[in-house]
TrEMBL record, chains A, B, C, D:
Keywords: Ion channel, Ion transport, Membrane, Potassium, Potassium channel, Potassium transport, Transmembrane, Transmembrane helix, Transport, Voltage-gated channel
Membrane topology: Multi-pass membrane protein
Domain Ion transport: 36-255
GO molecular-function term, one example from the UniProt record: voltage-gated potassium channel activity
Annotated Pfam families: Ion_trans
Chain segments annotated as transmembrane: 36-56, 68-86, 107-127, 170-191, 231-256
UniProt-recorded name of the protein: Potassium channel protein
GO biological process, one term: action potential
UniProt feature coiled coil, ranges: none
Subcellular localization(s) per the UniProt record: Membrane
GO cellular component: voltage-gated potassium channel complex
């Protein structure tokens, strides 16, 4: 029947596209069959890419294996390009991107698709050019998406939720850190500038001292030498201890909230008297 | 009627002053209308001031944009002075400062008004003089007052309450840190003074080592070289780990208390049997 | 009557000694009257002593105020000696040290009395001798006893209890740190010794690197330069992050336990049905 | 009777072997009698071994006490070899290794037996050879097994359980750290390579900077000098603060879970109305 022909065509397309969609998808849950194998290959290619990006900068390896690096880059880009195009084709299987044109456009401008795109486009402009090579590092970010399919997916989600729950507090503590940084660096500039005019040349230059002092890194390339500067430096270092306490405290309360919530759901208690939930 | 004339006058004054008061106030809660716009302008001016204070110390920018810096300073001080005078005028609208004279005097000596005053007065003595420029940094502190109107007001209050709840424990841990600092620096002075008389010249000088060692900053400008000094230095560094644990532990218990209290209030449980609160 | 004369005498002695005991005691609780004033004087003398010990090592002050330092030392030792003798006299008022001889002997060998003794005895051997001056630092430890009379007594006890509750876990984590220190220093010695024989001269010498690396102090006087050494150094640094997490986690659980226990006592809940405790 | 003869023989063997097994075993619980003394001797020998391994590398001691070191090494290896062989003989007393051949083979390839073997085998190849001496450090790992018999066994188990409960989250945070390390080191390489080509020679070389910056060690042998590099370095240092917060938060929630679980078991509450567990 003609009436069913089109649905049949649609169903066939649907079947191939749907299978492919299910093979490519990286949502939470246990992997099986084609999806498992495809994702294992993807993790391997991304990991080898990370290794290639890192080792490519070692002069000894670069000279010796230049051909290999080039071939692997060619293979990677081909692989990622095909994967990218396939994802755009099958994305309409996802409820969020159902419309053939609008849905696909929205998918193309989603964060994960942009990362996928940035991972391949520099290749088409220039090969192994140092000035664009930096963008290839973005490929590394792809691996974060794959955590969710690993056996660590539960742990990853727990950390993700704890951080998301306390996002505002964490952002605020970073803002507070930046503010304290400006204030202590300004003070230190006026204290040390006259004695060490080259190192503490301006407030922005002093902020390099500020950030290494507050985070207790302390490289030793810049530090106060006047008694007042040392007093201020000591106060900043002690303040830095509190700086570590703040995000830790926030994150701990986030973790505990999540743990408690998870438990409450599975450990509901019922009144032994009337049977109603307590 | 003459009897209503004065109230009418009062009401008029009240209306203008009250409107202005509501436009300027920065207490917690959602902003709307004039108040929102005024506070946005205030945040912008203060932020640009911070930027100007920081960039003004960079010789390259200072030479190039000297006129701009001067004009912006003039504008800022005018803006802050008008704002300061208006705040003194309208402060009587606040229940705490109702009396026209006594209330205003009390307002002038409140912490926030003093910070506002310190932000403007250096200008009237000397312009861009390095010795008073340091006081202009106080303007940066003004920004903390504005956190409460942002979308982070909830997070800010949570951190504020957690810190306030554990204020005594936090002060005490700072006191303990200072005490341990005096003790370990005294010991280190007697251990290292003979070998490194220039660096470990006195106990106060050794305290610079002490604070960088306990807070694990470790600039590398001063460190023990004798075996006994290294042993003591190692113990101090390990003690420093505990030093981070103390305020973190205190702050975490503060955060959790606050979270728990907030929850208990909204999640009161009632006995399903008799309806009374459990 | 002769029969009452002795009791009267005893009572009189008791009265003076008991009053003095109550004036000197530093157990927990609110201070009032003589006890408050005496303890304030004691805190002042101990604090000034700490200041004198610290400033005495600064050559400029030592030359200028030598007489003042000497006089203050003379006054301090006299003050502490009288206080020490009085404490021995009145200690029998305390239930723990009731026996005139055995009780007093036991008091003399109590930790706090030994600290009191060590604070004064060096003076009687030599005055301001550098080799014994170190013992004068012990006077600083006296101040810890005085925390309990301050307004921070509650906070001090809370920290004290949290630490005491988790003493075994904290001791164990220090032991684990020392073990890991021995292991990583031994490994690093075999890795770096051939390349940097002067710095990594032996395992004990390498432990100085180990402790500054694990505690993230990193002075920069000793660090690995071979690729394998840097790999090991990096692992040790990341391990050091966990090192901070362990005592912090232990202390936090200690704080929370204490908070929870305190609360449970005051927030007992009763069944609204039968009135019994829930 | 012949029928009982074999059992009698078996029982006798069993008795000796069983006694020896009970003397050697190091499972949790209070030690008594032979087992206590044997384990004390074992702890002493292992501790002295650790000391010998450490001090043997100090040239001064090595020359002076060469004979002593050699004799103690000979004694240690003999002691450990006998202990190792005895453990293989008696292991069949353990339910897990009952079979005389298969059980023993499985025991030999258990983690603890492999550590025991590695502690002795280097001796039989070469004495005090530097290239194998490194394996002797493995003897130190033996001491971890002995924590469980000490008075800290409860604390050790608590830490062990808290870490085991959160193993996946802790592994994941190490993986996240390594990922961030690769990303920030790659970025820093492209930023600083042109200005400091010797220090930031390749991405692997830059990772040494990355790990000392993220963990706030900061030796000061390598650090950015360009403004962009300093900006990135500052962000990495602040990110490092979060790095400490993550495992701490995970471990704290692990500790609290364990504490809560332990408590719930012993603090079950019962409904005063009907007697059933609440």
């Amino acid at each position: 029947m003609l009436a069913t022909e089109k649905p049949a065509y649609k169903t066939r397309t649907h079947t191939i596209r749907h299978r492919l969609y299910r093979a490519l998808e990286t949502s939470y849950g246990k992997r099986r069959g084609v999806n498992l194998y495809f994702n294992l290959i993807l993790v391997t290619v991304i990991s080898l890419n990370a290794l290639a990006i890192v080792l490519h900068t070692v002069p000894a390896y670069n000279l010796k294996y230049e051909k290999l690096f080039y071939d692997f880059e060619l293979f990677s880009v081909t692989f990622f390009t095909i994967e990218y195009l396939l994802r755009i084709w099958v994305c309409v299987e996802n409820e969020k991107y159902q419309h053939p044109v609008k849905g696909r456009l929205r998918y193309i401008f989603s964060t994960s698709a942009i990362i996928d795109f940035l991972a391949i486009f520099p290749f088409f402009f220039t090969l192994f050019a140092a000035d664009l090579a930096i963008i290839r590092i973005l490929r590394l970010f792809r691996i974060f998406r794959l955590f969710r399919i690993s056996r660590y997916s539960h742990a990853f989600r727990m950390i993700q939720h704890a951080v998301a729950d306390r996002k505002e507090e964490l952002v605020l503590s970073v803002v507070l850190i930046v503010f304290m940084l400006i204030i202590v660096s300004s003070l230190m500039y006026y204290v040390e500038h006259n004695v060490q005019p080259k190192l503490f040349s301006s407030i922005p230059a002093t902020m390099w001292w500020g950030v290494t002092a507050m985070t207790t890194v302390g490289y030793g390339d810049i530090y106060p030498i006047t008694p007042l500067g040392k007093l201020l430096g000591g106060l900043v270092a002690i303040m830095g201890v509190g700086l570590f306490a703040l995000p830790t405290g926030i994150l701990v309360s986030g973790f505990l909230d999540h743990v408690r919530t998870t438990k409450t759901a599975s450990q509901k208690r019922f009144c032994p008297h009337c049977g109603k939930e307590l």
